[in-house]
From TrEMBL:
The active site is at residues 150, 184. This is Dihydrodipicolinate synthase. InterPro entries: Aldolase_TIM, DapA-like. The keyword Membrane does not apply. Pyruvate binds at residue 235.
Length: 335
């Protein structure tokens, strides 16, 4: 199948999966806060991902999903960021519904789709690789948007992918489809990403595929070692709190690797120290803690609250964040 048309090129770099802000009194989507998030991240040169795990996509109606995409596109265009693409989560329980959501995402203004495997029936399909491959091939064949595979097997994702974990062979097979343009590896396996990169960055692969294939770790605490292992960047929820720091790490690391400059590599390692510390704090804090950190340390009301039943940040989480984000926030505020 020929690849879907591309309106805005996807590029290497650091991307952030935005939280969907909900109003404290009604849990309705706060579109003004969302637009503020989008502009802040775009100004920091962070790529934009909506309707992912952090975005509580499973808590949104179809109308709200489309509204989030439209508001994001409006915010980008009105702030002079017309060139920035939107990567939108469209995965759900069946291939048919995933295709429908992807078409609706395209119609609302998304440029690319990121799709997680169906986790609800993981007891039936979690180890059935042919069934999972069939799911993705049906979606890839029918999707009007280029598709990124989302591998999220960890325990904290039990409600999303229920432990389904793809190995490099499985991803390499899907990467041969002309409508598959990348993979997000929230399994945190650098070796897996490198094996995929060896295949997709080969001359033979490039001859068969008109667009590059992107390998994006799902954490920023491994960004430097992942870049050394041929990754394209990262997609990190910690970008909601310290976006400029993560972009600085990415830029410094890429420059050091391109030039072989030892001083730059050491600077990248020191930045990675900061980011690794902050990233772990955000991972432990979860979605409620991330929203609290945004409201407390960035801008009041920017993150909003999670939708029930996701918990708000507990006193213990708030104390942990004050300590775990201290160095990262100090550096972020110096940029």
């Amino acid at each position: 199948m020929s690849p879907s048309a591309i309106s805005r090129p996807f590029t290497d770099g650091a991307y952030c999966p935005l939280v969907t802000p909900f109003k404290p009194d009604t849990e309705e989507v706060d579109y003004d806060a969302l637009r503020s998030q989008v502009v802040r991240l775009a100004n920091a040169r962070m790529g934009i991902v909506v309707l992912g795990t952090n975005g509580e996509a499973s808590h949104l109606s179809d109308t709200e999903r489309a509204g989030v995409i439209r508001a994001t596109r409006q915010a980008l265009d009105s702030s002079g960021h017309t060139h920035i693409p939107i990567l939108a989560g469209t995965g759900t329980g069946s291939a048919k519904e995933t295709i429908r959501l992807t078409i609706e995402a395209r119609d609302a203004g998304a440029d690319y789709a990121i799709i997680i495997p169906p986790g609800y029936f993981s007891f039936a399909v979690g180890r059935d690789l042919p069934s999972l491959k069939k799911f993705f091939l049906q979606v890839l064949d029918a999707s009007p948007l280029p598709v990124m595979i989302y591998n999220f097997p960890l325990n904290i994702a039990s409600g999303a992918a229920s432990g389904i974990d793809f190995d490099s062979d499985f991803v390499i097979d899907l990467a041969e489809h002309q409508n598959c343009f990348g993979v997000k590896l929230t399994c945190a396996s650098i070796g897996k990403g490198q094996r995929i990169a060896i295949h997709t960055q080969s001359a033979a692969y490039k001859e068969r595929h008109p667009r590059p294939f992107f390998i994006m770790p799902g954490y920023s605490d491994i960004l430097l070692p992942a870049l050394i292992a041929r990754a394209s960047g990262c997609i990190t929820g910690t970008g909601n709190v310290i976006p400029k720091t993560i972009v600085k790490l990415y830029d410094t690391a890429v420059s050091a690797l391109a030039t072989g400059n030892a001083e730059q590599l050491e600077a990248a390692r020191e930045l990675q120290d900061l980011v690794a510390e902050a990233d772990w704090a955000i991972v432990k804090a979860g979605i409620g803690g991330t929203k609290y950190a945004m409201d407390t340390y960035v801008q009041e009301g920017l993150g909003g609250v999670p939708r029930t039943p996701l918990p708000h940040a507990s006193p213990a989480i708030k104390t942990m964040l004050a300590s775990g984000l201290k160095r990262g926030l100090a550096y972020e505020n110096s940029l």
